[in-house]
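In the design runs reported in the main text, the only information available to the sequence generator was the tokenized backbone. The following block is the verbatim input for one such run; it is reproduced so that readers can re-run the procedure and compare outputs position by position.
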């Protein structure tokens, strides 16, 4: 059993990952010595280096800082995304270092806190970020471990003085089963990560195991999911404990009436665009409400929440040009993102630039991706971002392109942007790989 009290130094394999970097910053704030490796020189890694964290981008063991060569009191934290052939993980295993998965460390940090865990294949980053904002905005000085950069915190980490933590509970590699939540919320269980789970049934079983980790009465589930719970929420429902009525778009913003167990709160404005974010607001409201916060305080916070980077994030918003970027990398997420654009900007031509993420996900949902993307007017596909995977025969963006039914479509090299962009009144970039590297060039191109 690992005891963090015995650890002085922590080396992170994959330190640029959104969950890993939050842990790295947590331990830096707690005055541990922290260093790490990542394949990509991302903005997160550059930011860590600026804050005096030693980060290397080559898996050469000779680049490990001398201090971290001392095995005693050194912990190596890694993610399942690190391939077995990585030279560093081989070195640490061969040298008999103490190794631990990211999920285990997060579980250790939060096991003695009042843990509010937000799970789901979609929505969990926005819900957990909004919940953390609601708590802090209502003077509950919580900690938060998030899967995205919350704009109001300008970070994926918040360290507070209260013994309460909001935690994004990641289903990948069954990581959320390492947590010990006191309260939990499940937003969705759509088939995903089938490279890990094999079947949608096994994914659902993992969510059921997660739900079993909280006491009866401490679980909130989106209505319609096959998991029993005391509380449910839904966008439109006559039976859910929390629901939205009279949803409408006014002046480019979503308004709705919120139904909760003791009444109705009318004319709530969502601080975030998109119909899916009305649902996310309901989820965060429900968790904050059962924690005892005042309805008026929660509603004010929902309206003032600034959002999460790469979650329906505006980069250009003028009368003539809209440019939105979103992390959507699952067919359901793409479908919802496009639907939200159609609600907000009816009758305006939409160009979608999409980078498929993982060969296995592209293979498993090829037809669903094609159907969702065919709801756009113009589709620009990039090559599949492989992440941790090797190519799969017969799985590529060309095959996906042939299944998309819009007339104006094509496969594009990322290096040809931003000039290659098909200009239209509304443009969206979608994907979870390195498509974010195109955001600033496209923005500059559109406003020039």
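Verbatim output:
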């Amino acid at each position: 059993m690992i005891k963090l009290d015995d650890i002085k130094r922590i080396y992170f394999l994959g330190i640029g990952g959104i969950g890993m970097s939050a842990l790295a910053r947590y331990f830096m704030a707690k005055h541990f010595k922290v260093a790490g490796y990542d394949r990509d020189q991302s903005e997160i890694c550059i930011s860590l280096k600026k804050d005096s964290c030693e980060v290397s981008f080559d898996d050469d063991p000779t680049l490990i800082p001398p201090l971290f060569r001392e095995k005693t009191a050194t912990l190596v934290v890694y993610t399942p995304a690190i391939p077995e052939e990585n030279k560093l993980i081989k070195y640490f295993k061969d040298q008999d270092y103490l190794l631990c998965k990211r999920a285990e460390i997060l579980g250790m940090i939060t096991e003695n806190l009042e843990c509010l865990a937000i799970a789901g294949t979609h929505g969990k980053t926005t819900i957990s970020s909004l919940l953390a904002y609601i708590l802090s905005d209502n003077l509950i000085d919580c900690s938060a471990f998030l899967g995205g950069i919350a704009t109001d915190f300008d970070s994926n980490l918040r360290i507070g003085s209260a013994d309460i933590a909001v935690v994004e509970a990641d289903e990948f590699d069954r990581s959320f089963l390492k947590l010990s939540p006191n309260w939990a919320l499940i937003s969705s269980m759509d088939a995903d990560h089938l490279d890990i789970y094999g079947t949608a049934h096994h994914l659902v079983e993992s969510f059921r195991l997660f739900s079993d980790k909280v006491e009866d009465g401490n679980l909130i589930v989106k209505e319609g999911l096959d998991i029993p719970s005391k509380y449910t929420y839904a966008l439109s429902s006559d039976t859910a404990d929390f629901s939205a009525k009279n949803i409408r778009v006014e002046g480019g913003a979503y308004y709705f009436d919120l139904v909760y167990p003791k009444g109705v709160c009318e004319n709530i404005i969502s601080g975030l665009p998109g119909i899916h974010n009305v649902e996310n607001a309901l989820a965060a409201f429900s968790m904050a409400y059962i924690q005892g916060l005042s309805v008026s305080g929660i509603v004010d916070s929902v309206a003032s929440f600034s959002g999460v980077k790469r979650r329906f994030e505006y980069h250009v918003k003028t009368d003539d040009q809209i440019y939105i970027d979103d992390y959507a990398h699952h067919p359901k997420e793409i479908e919802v993102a496009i639907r939200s654009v159609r609600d907000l900007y009816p009758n305006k031509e939409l160009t979608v630039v999409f980078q498929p993420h993982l060969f296995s996900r592209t293979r498993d949902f090829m037809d669903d991706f094609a159907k969702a993307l065919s709801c756009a007017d113009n589709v620009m596909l990039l090559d599949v971002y492989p992440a941790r995977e090797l190519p799969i025969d017969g799985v590529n963006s060309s095959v996906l392109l042939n299944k998309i039914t819009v007339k104006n479509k094509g496969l594009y090299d990322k290096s040809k942007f931003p000039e290659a962009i098909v200009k239209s009144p509304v443009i969206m970039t979608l994907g979870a790989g390195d498509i974010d590297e195109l955001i600033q060039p496209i923005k500059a191109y559109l406003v020039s």
